[in-house]
Every structure is written in structure tokens, then in C-alpha cells.
Amino acid sequence: MADMKFKKIPLPKGFDKTNEKHLRKLTMQIQEIAAKKDPELKNYSLFRVDDQQGVALLAPLGYEKRDDTNAVKYFAVEPSELNNLKAAVDRIEQNSEYAGYFVVDINTTQRVLTAERMDEKALNAREHFATALGVKPWQIRVESTPEHGWKIRIRKDAAIYVASKYDKAMQEQVEVVGAPGWFFRADPETNVIVVYPGEMPTFPKSIPMPDEVWQEPNPTRTAFGMKLPENGRRTGDMATIDWKESSFCIIGGEPGSGKSVLMNDILAGEIASGVRLAIVDIANKATDYYWCRPWVEPGYWGCESEIQGAGVLNRLVQEMKTGERARAWKQNGWQNWNDIPDWAKERFPIFDVVLDEFASLTNGAALCKSIPNPEKVLPPIFEQTFLNHAKYSIQKQVLDILRIGRAQGYRLILISQTINQSSSLPPTTRDLFGHRIVMDVNPSDSLVTGTFHDPKGMPDVPANVSLDGVSKGVGRAELSGQGPCIFKTFYAGHDGMRDTEVLGRTLAQSVGLPEGIDQDRYFDTLRMHSGDDPIDVNYMNLLTSRIDMPYTDALMTDSILRQLKKGWDDSKRLFLASGADDDDREPSRLETEGGFGIDGRDVADHDAPLKGAARAAHASAVEQALAVARRSKAQGM
What we know:
Layout: E1 7-10, H1 20-36, E2 44-50, E3 55-60, E4 72-76, H2 85-93, E5 101-107, E6 112-117, H3 120-133, E7 140-144, E8 150-154, H4 163-177, E9 183-187, E10 192-196, H5 212-215, E11 221-227, E12 238-242, E13 248-252, H6 259-272, E14 276-280, E15 301-302, H7 306-322, H8 324-332, H9 342-347, E16 351-355, H10 358-362, H11 379-404, E17 410-416, H12 427-430, E18 435-439, H13 445-451, H14 463-467, E19 474-478, E20 485-489, H15 499-510, H16 519-526, H17 537-545, H18 551-556, H19 559-577, H20 589-593, H21 612-634
Parallel strand pairs: 13-17, 13-18, 14-15, 14-16, 16-17
Antiparallel strand pairs: 1-3, 2-3, 4-6, 5-6, 7-8, 8-10, 9-10, 11-12, 11-20, 18-19, 19-20
Helix pairs in contact: 3-4, 6-15, 7-8, 7-11, 11-19
């Protein structure tokens, strides 16, 4: 083989070829260069180390050096053995005269049998690799490599290496021969496999947000983290959502699993690329999105109540059906936002719809089929009917967005602690989401089953990720157009600043703040405050009121909600006019405890705080009830 086919790379400083750790680092360096700079190196392996020149000489995987003739013997194959090659193998390998020699090749045309001297280690490796490939041991040749791994040559008349057929079994046997973390590279053209010693892939403790998110925003692909590195590599490929493949993403995760940081990463990339933004969430959880309020479209912040959340979604769907964007699509015959002219993309940019705590927002959803009679229905019943219809409206409009939004450039990111039939996400709805993500290294089986299309096909997070103390921000993703992956989110925080502060400041510099936003006052809302250094409440309220959908506007988006609100108000007026005296009644739990209703848990659990979705739903209901009480008092009812 000509010298021109060899490659050289510089050795790391202080490299010692007798040190196995140094050899593994060199292997990792070669794999990193192959992944990032020179893809051809993936089909090269270490040939030898040149200490004098300080380089590692690499040869193609299929390169074959001549064996020491003293370690090789040749034998004739008897005519009677041509139909029983095992007999020929046994004749040599069981002959004490040739102890230590084992058959590595049989040329039936020339009737020549080749035997090589092999030790127990090589014999054991050959046995396992032959099992993985489904061939006889003598149909492969095994030799040690400079990295203390193995090079395997497969007879082409025995098997042709096909990745889909052999990769899984081969990796299993590689780890049996070596250890977890060992890996291999196969060259189907030469039918050669090289097995490398290695360590289990892992993540860094923290992964900074790459500069390219701000400097080179991609409107069709959003990066949110790093995939678990392939065996042999130090870094993984970027984990990205390809919006051309699907416009809809569903994210599941229990409290504290890392959903908020994931959403921060996704929204940072989306805002940098110039999208319009709508956010719907429960009131006491919406603080997660306070950092990005400057870039939320005015009138599309639906986080102050379920009514306003429903109003935002109602308005969005109405625009999709009859608004300016819908009319432009109809007039021009456009079918896909990605294919419309550039001027149209500027006029009608991508519109991201973020819907968080979906299970809480839709818990108890029910269509109101007829308006109750205010003279016969008590105010609390009217209130519940009113709220349940708003929840139903949220549930219904999500389906409409999923069915008609993609063509016009709408994207939906839905986040929920639970994903199943009872959380308003039946299989028919989940099937419309092309991108599916579950946070945490060990989520519940129900969450995994409810979220992923193929739960059994999802890789398990390696145990060493938790043992290494780097599991924070780790999750798994089933992304449309890509294979399933394990990933770790970016974290933009540094130098004592939280990620939200860094993201807000960086976006303000890279894409700018909308007119009317005071940069210094906005930045002040992002930093940590204490009792001695209170936050500017007035400016916090101003940032929200600038984008909030007014309560009355939300009612105008749904005729049933309007009629229910009128009926509820009438019911309260009639109830008070009937002579009911507030002084004659027992104070409610809402007034004395900040809660209400019967605790349905076991008696032994009554003193324990609510958790997860139950806590969020309870807090939302309390907030709604308090708001009603305040309004009634202000109106003198």
C-alpha cells in the first residue's frame, strides 16, 4: 500500500505509548478529529507511534501488514476434507506437534490451510467475535492493535459486514471481550473491523450555550443541548429540533426534572431567529417566562388566568381560519410556510405557541352545552361551569392548532407533568407531535409510555451519567427525522448570573428590545434580589400589562364564555339579593386557610403538602377563587 494513504496527527504533549490511558486519549482525539474536521479519519486506525517525530501514524482500517513467517504455517488440505473442512481444522489444531497454532484461513481452490500462533486472549476474542458475526472461528483473522484492541478480518465468502445486521451483536461481544465503553469501527468495503479500548461516554457537568445560537440563528432548526457522545468521543453532536420535519413538540417531565431550562434554551434560539411568540401557562408558574416577556407578542400573554389563556388560543385559531395570514395563504395558494417567498416570510414570520402545565390547564375541562338559569343555579356552580368551559376551550383549540397551524408557520410546544388520556392527551392527539422529549434520567414508566411513539426503542441513560454526578439537565428525545437520543441541555448561566439573566441580556444585545422597553430597568428585573434590595414591582407589572390579553378581551373571543360570565354575575346578584346574610354563615376554608374543598387523600396524609400537578392545580384554583372574592367585594356584592 502506497505511503500516500497513511495519515499523521501530532501526539499530545507528554504522550507515553506504554500508558493505556494515553493510548485511549489518543484514540479519542482521532475520533474527535474524524467527527469535526476530517471525516475520512473514521476509516483509519493507529498503525504505529513515532516518538522521534512526535506523531501518530494512521493507516486505513483495511491495511494489512505482513505477518512474521515464524508465526505462520501452511498445510495442504486433503481432497477428502474439502467437503468437511472442520476435519481439516481439527487435524491441525488437535495435533500436539502444532500446539499453539490455530487455523485462520482455508483456500479451497488452492487447497491450502493457514495456521497462526495465537494465545488464549486472542483465541477468546476470536470466539466471541465469530459468534457475533455468525461465522466459524477460522473464517475470521484476529490480531492485536497498538491500542491493545483487536483488528478482525472477515472472509468475504463467509460474511459481508452489514451494519444493520451485525452492529448490535458486535457491540455486545466487544464489551464482553473488553469492557463497557469499548467500541468498534467497521469498513464494509474491506470487511475489516477494528475494536478500540474506551471508556463509557458521559457529559460535562455543565454545557455552555454555544455562541452560534446568537450569531448564526437558524429559523428551521433549534439547538437545545448536546447529545451523549458516541463511544470513543469526548463531545457529542448538537441536539436540535428540525422544524421542517414537524412543527409540534411535546415535552414531559416531573417537577425539578429540567423542563424550564430546556424551554429557556429552545426559546432563546427561537427568539434569536425572529419568531413571534405567544405563551399560555398557569398564573403561579408563569414566572418561568418572565425573562422573555419583551419578545412576547402584545395581547398573547395568556398566563394570568385560564380565561385569558383560552382567549389567547381562541384568538390564534381565529387568525388561522379567517385572519390576514389565512387570507394571504388562500389568495396565493400557499401550502407550506417553508416554501413561501422571502417577502412573505418577513410579513408572516414563524409564530411560536408555548403551552405549559397543560394537564393543570385542562383538568376538569367540559363543554357547556346550555347556559344554566341564574335564578336556579348557585354562584359556585356557575363559576365551576365557567372555568370548566374555559379549560375545554384550551383543550379544543390545541387540536385545531395541531390540525391547521403548520401550513401557516405556527409551531406548538406543549409541556406537561403528565402525558396520558386522563391529562387531555389521548393517543390520537399525541400522534400529531413529531418531536417528543422526556426530561430526567429515570422518569416514570407512565410518562415514558405516554410520551414516546416507540418507548421500547428509546436508549436507557447509562448508569455512569448519574454516578459521575452530571445527570442534571439530562433527558431523552424522539425527534422527527432523527434517531432517538440521550442529551443534556445547555446552561447559559455563568459568573453568578442565572441562565435567564444571561439569555435576556444577550438577546437584548443580539436582536434588540422592542420599542418602549427600558433596557436598564428590564435588566434589573432579571437579576437576583433580596429583602433589602426589592425588585421594581411597578416595572414588573408594566412588562406584563404590555403583553397581557385583557380579561374582557378574552371573554369576547368565546360567546359561551361571555354568556356564562353574565349568568354567573346575575347568579351572584340574585343570591345576595335573596337575603343571604354573610354574617350568619360560617367562614369558608378559602378565608381561614387559603384553600377550599374536602381533602380527598387518606387521613394520614392530610397534613402533608400537595405535590406536583395537584399542588399547581390547587394553587391555580385558590388564586381564581380569591380573585372572584376580591371582585365581588369591590363591586359590593
